[in-house]
Write a structure and sequence with these properties.
Number of strands: 14
InterPro entries: Carboxypeptidase_A_C_sf, Class_I_gatase-like, LdcA_N, Peptidase_S66_N, Peptidase_S66C, S66_fam
CATH superfamily of the largest domain: LD-carboxypeptidase A C-terminal domain-like
CATH topology of the largest domain: Glucose Oxidase, domain 1
Pfam families: Peptidase_S66 (PF02016), Peptidase_S66C (PF17676)
CATH architecture of the largest domain: 3-Layer(bba) Sandwich
Helix content: 25-40%
Shape: globular
Family: Belongs to the peptidase S66 family.
GO molecular function: carboxypeptidase activity; serine-type peptidase activity
Strand content: 15-25%
CATH class of the largest domain: Alpha Beta
Number of helices: 9
Radius of gyration: 18 Å
Organism: Lysinibacillus composti
Length: 304
């Protein structure tokens, strides 16, 4: 069982870091407004505002920022400001024991998938797959997306069914297991490394953005050849947004049909998890029940 971080309380201080691509500083105040709205104080890491071509400063600057926030007893949660690229560059330098010794909320998605995977395996804590603060404005973040932050303040069992979005069963059945996964491209990039995706007996979440059907096919095939699809207990298919070459979601679903139906493991598509609105935040590393017959996903609370 993964360690669940303590719940947040109004008045707590949280840390804001940029572990991937930079964000223009003039946009920062609007992105931090939600934290104030939630009743939180914040410390802005030194990586925020740094630039280095396509990265937020150097690897050492981003790494030091993360370590400072993890080890700071005043900081109760760490929110990633922006995705893009760069998180994997520091994965082999992180002190994962410090996460286990100082368990706290770690929140983000997309490029941060690499760190969710690494922290789960080596830091042994539950992390949270949720929207980056860079997407936080009144125009960009829906009320439902904002509501999902409340799971950090109260241990709530999350129940996702068709009241949130239409769901499609790919393979029927029901399964219980630990939820892991996230961005498909970043998960595939772990293969052959120390941080290789551990799918054994787990419910795998997949989402992505801006890919062609050919690339999605290639990534699923690589997971198949690496036996990760065989290892998994079930599959949650999130949102695939801004697809290239006129590719439709129906095209993507047909591709998942092709890869997942022969496995005869419960699989459901249509979850608004990923680069979409609403973006339903979920804890990774908790036990969940995926019921493909009733088209639903239930997850245990991510905080204690």
């Amino acid at each position: 069982m993964k360690i669940r971080p303590n719940r947040l309380r109004v008045g707590d201080t949280v840390g804001v870091v940029t572990l991937s691509s930079p964000l223009a500083m003039e946009k920062l105040p609007g992105k931090l407004a939600l934290l104030k709205e939630l009743g939180l104080n914040y410390k802005v890491g030194q990586s925020v505002g740094l630039t280095g071509n396509y990265l937020a400063g150097t690897d050492e600057e981003r790494l030091n920022d993360l370590h400072s926030m993890v080890r700071d007893p005043e900081v109760k949660a760490i929110f990633c400001l922006r995705g893009g690229y760069g998180a994997a560059r520091i994965a082999d330098k992180i002190d994962y024991q410090s996460f286990e010794e100082n368990p706290k909320v770690f929140w983000g998605f997309s490029d941060v998938t690499y760190l969710h995977n690494a922290i789960s395996e080596y830091g042994n804590i539950v992390t949270f797959h949720g929207p980056m603060l860079s997407s936080v404005t009144k125009e960009e973040l829906s009320d439902l997306s904002k509501k999902m932050f409340q799971q950090l303040f109260t241990p709530l069992e999350i129940q996702y069914d068709e009241n949130i979005s239409p769901l499609q069963t790919i393979v029927p059945g029901s399964v219980r297991g630990e939820v892991t996964g996230g961005n498909l491209q970043r998960l595939v990039s772990t293969l052959g490394t120390k941080f290789e995706l551990n799918a054994k007996g787990k419910i795998l979440l997949f989402e992505d953005v801006g890919e062609s059907l050919e690339n999605i096919d290639g990534m699923l095939n690589q997971l198949r050849l690496a036996r990760k699809l065989d290892d998994a207990a079930g599959f949650v298919i999130g949102n695939f947004a801004n697809l290239e070459d006129g590719t439709s979601n129906e095209d993507v679903l047909r591709l998942f049909d092709e890869y997942l139906k022969p496995l005869r493991k419960p699989a459901v598509a249509g979850f608004m998890i990923g680069h979409c609105e609403p973006n339903i935040s979920i804890p990774l590393g908790v036990e969940a029940i995926l019921d493909a017959d009733q088209k639903g996903l239930r997850l245990l609370p991510g905080v204690q």
